[in-house]
Amino acid sequence: MSGFRQRTISREATLDGVGVHCGEPASVTFRGANPGTGVVFRRIDIEGAPEIPATVAQVVDTDRGTTLGAGGVTVRTVEHALAAVLALEIDNLVISVAGAEVPIRDGSFADFLAALEGAGPVEQEADALVLCLSEPLAFDGPSHQSYALTPAAGLAVSATIDFEHELIGRQSISVAIDAQTFRKSVAPARTFGFQADAEVLRARGLALGASLDNTVVLSEGGIMNDGLRFEDEFVRHKIGDLLGDLALLGARVQAHIVAERPSHTGNVALVRLLATHLR
Ligand SMILES: [Zn+2]
Predict the structure, then answer these.
(1) CA–CA dist 32, 11 (Å, integer)
(2) pTM of the prediction?
(3) Shortest CA distance to 94 belongs to which of 14, 25, 37, 15?
(4) How many other C-beta atoms lie within 10 A of the C-beta of residue 238?
(5) 5-129 has which CATH code?
(6) Which residues contact 59 (CB under 8 A, 6 or more apart)?
(7) 21 touches 207 (CB < 8 A)
(8) Which of 144, 256, 264, 277 is catalytic?
(9) What's the mean per-residue pLDDT of the chain?
(10) Which protein residues have a CB closer than 5 Å to ligand 1 (ion)?
(11) Is 264 annotated in the active site?
């Protein structure tokens, strides 16, 4: 008995667009699901519409985004949609994807949040699974990330990033995560990349759909876009990415997470560790 009810959505919502890595058209449709379903992706462009559960066990890649896979079928860049799912405490959802990747939209979390909020989140007749830490937990990721968790009544994230670019440098922010603060403080923050990396990424088949419409692009000493949505938009986006990866736990989390240099690789390793505390 957690005291929290499971939640789903009461109507469908669809978003289309382009995949930031594959550069191909893609769409997602969110549909409600029965209690106990969890969050499940379906590749509806493939015969039989194979399912890929949105759980940490299905993570197959964390380079420049989080990719899930099952039975050789993958879905890429799941984290922005899943961050909105987590912020709205939606436990049961079917996300049908027509394409290999969730569309990037404007590079932020905002469209996913608006679509799901517009789809009428509702409580269901079942208790939600909640991870409550009984004691602090510290975890160092595989490449200079570190995470420290302390027990808390709700979910809060403090993050620090450090990039050698004069517009970023060292940025820190703490956010108590509920739908309202996520909408205001995190959801509008866009993904970012360095112009200097673009050629190498494209040669590797990544960032083929990236543009100034969906990515803050940092050039030497500035950005190529018209402006930033927050002075510290970069660290705010990293908090959203962390939340999207945290959704792969499949349970609500009650903890204060302090993250230094979070990355998808570190986030997913953290969630794998947290999953062992669920049993
Ligand atoms: Zn992101």
Answers:
(1) 7
(2) 0.97
(3) 37
(4) 26
(5) 3.30.230.20
(6) 66, 67, 68, 248, 268
(7) yes
(8) 264
(9) 96
(10) 191, 241
(11) yes
